[in-house]
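Database export, one record per block. Field names are fixed; values are copied verbatim from the stored entry.
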Amino acid sequence: MLWAALSYSLGIITGVHAPRPASWWVAAAVAFLTAGLYFVRRRKWLGVTLALGAFFLAGALHIQLKGPTDALDPSLQPFDGQQVEMTAHVIREGKFREGAPGEIRQTVDVETEEIVAENGNPIPVHSGVRLGIYSVRPDAVSQPLFHYGERLQLPLKLKLPRNFRNPGSFDYQGYLTANRISSLGSAKAEEVKLLPGFAGTRLELWRSRIHASIIAKVHALWPPPQAALIDAMVIGEEAFIDRDTRVDFQRSGTYHILVVSGMNVTILAFVAFWSLRRLRLAEVPATLLTILFCIAYAFLTEVGAPVWRATLMCAIYLVTRLLYRDRAMVNALGAAALGLLVFDPRQLFTASFQMTFLCVLIVAAIGVPLIERTSRLYRQALAHWDADDYGPSLPPRVAQFRLDLRLVARQLARFIGTKWSLRLIRTATIIFLAVFELLLVSAVMQMGLALPMAYYFHRATTIGLPANVAVVPLTQLLMPAAILTITLGYVSPLLAKLPALPTTFAMQSITGTVHGLGGLRLADLRVATPSLVMMATASAALILAMLCARRRAPIALAGIIALLLASLALAFVPPKPETRVGLLEVTSIDVGEGDSILLVMPEGRTLLIDAGGPIWGAGSQLDYGEDVVAPYLWTRRISRLDAVAISHGHSDHIGGMPAVLKDFRPKELWIGLLPPSRALENLIAEANQLGIKVVRHWEGDEFNLGGAKVDVLFPPEDWPVGLEPKNNDSMVLQVSYGKTSVLLEGDAEKAVERRIATLHHPRADLLKVGHHGSATSTTPEILQSVKPSYAVISLGFRTSFGFPKADVLQRLQASGVRVYRTDLDGTVTFYLDGRSVTPRLPSLE
């Protein structure tokens, strides 16, 4: 079944990249299957090969019949950017998070019923919308504002989702499309009217009510910090988890604990099956009830594909036990993968699907064989522990191990008696072997997952082994104890206190381990996208380890060593950055309504100026440094920066910089004016803590960086500092290579531009337009002095400030300047070769 699933997967990939008429695939599949049936009894290997070819062709046909990835529903596109009145019903109850001080935001998915546009005519429309509904109700956290099936009427401005147009950026639009959402909107809770009637299914209504009831019960039984983690680990509700907690779990390599995943289903299935068997229930009904319990749990959590995949694999594994095939783990894995791909072949291209099955495959193909020849072999020594004549029937080394243990027990019997000494030695040995197995499987998992972790998440989980050794057993205690506590909580809060004690102990131990290990500097090891050669090498090492695991010990050890070396190379050998030697590169990264500019010097030195951020420092779950700037740099295979600079202290320039400092550990942080600002103070403190040199630059500074000349044109040391950051605090730099140069203004406005034009008379081929195209900047004086051939404006799509202003664009056009904009063009790169400037727009797929 595994080979069949792999063949089907290769067919899906081929169907995407080498499409052919459907009749080709059908005819070829029939021919291969017929030939396979003919040869299966004559030449088995040929028959199996032809059958696998039929699976390959079926996969290619399936993905082509399925068609390309669904695009956004066009129904709401005519209303993009318009103020409308919408009638809709809730299809998915909201997730809460903190907004502005004293404000709670609920994200609610609705399906529209009717849209009243600006012309006043109602238009029936059925499409998904994700609403951000703001409320100041003090009880909003414990009780959802709006429930599944309720009908709503509200005024709002619709906005189509839009990705940051940088290579490597998260496909937010695709994520929403997969959840049947085609537009976004926001409204105040008091502006939302509840309409009579119900729209939806009763089954989903009951599911959402039970889910909400469990969340409320958790928050009644535990204090908020613990309740938030139990919500996430037990029921899949991540709404109350703050970003810092998420990062700690990610850094420690234990993020899988924080989300409902295969491990949760496995633990619950084991506890349920064990409990039913202890109640003298026969194996068949116990198996069926366990499967039904897992299905109910998956349905209740609403986590989606990951938990359903785990439930399917668990069900297949349990059923195969009834057929006396309880060791066919790889076969069960292949059957589950094939079934899911037949249901939806596009899952193959998701990180979640790939990592789920890779995890299980690593355990089945490497972990289990190694355990079978080590700890499981020695477990035989503990069977029939009281019998004296059992040892001779064991393999010699196992028999010797049993003899040694019994000799130790005999010595110990002098103090505690024979009965208790035998029990103590056996129990201690079982614990030792269990710890060994946990260490072995965890180590193999960390090494085997090094490549997808580096590729998808740009992390090297260097402390994942000790963290999981501590956390996984605690999770095995927490899951059943928490579920028992919640169940008893409906009966009697007093009775619930007893199982709540081990739950709280496990939770505090988990968080203490995660925060302790996650806080280590070694845990925060970020890596760039591996090169193709490194990915091929790591994949080959993993396959080699799988093939060698069941062979003789020296060969198996060689496979493990190869896998270890590959994982260490992924973590500690940085790939070669994708840069052009001998050119000055200036790239304006799309960060929406903010600034972030990457400069790569002719000799390869790197400088990042600003890192984007939310406007006015508004509360946002998006970290512009971690989620927008860093993915682009990692895609360029940039692991470290030589220097970073902040033009000034406004949040749309500085907000993402703390994450950049942690992820790329630059040697220097350049700053200019320092008005009173909590954000600036925290950034400098962070740099000092990380050992990054903080350098103040002033007007008149001139130095060489990687073969390019850097001139600081503003600010002077005697420039007056205000009571808060202002646009005219901006550090203005001119970077030159040969006869070409770029002028980087930050958000400098008229007063600064006139000073620069009067005192320095800069001449540049490329101008980074000041203040995102605002009328406060790009004065005639600066244009007349600089005489740029190209200009780039960094701004958000349909910005609320109305940038760029029409008169700014007119002045640029009148000066003969060719203008590029990140809102329209995405990431824009310019190459300065010392004689001319060449613009380039990266292809975005």
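Remark 1: The chain has a mean pLDDT of 88.
Remark 2: DSSP finds 29 helices and 22 strands in the chain.
End of record.
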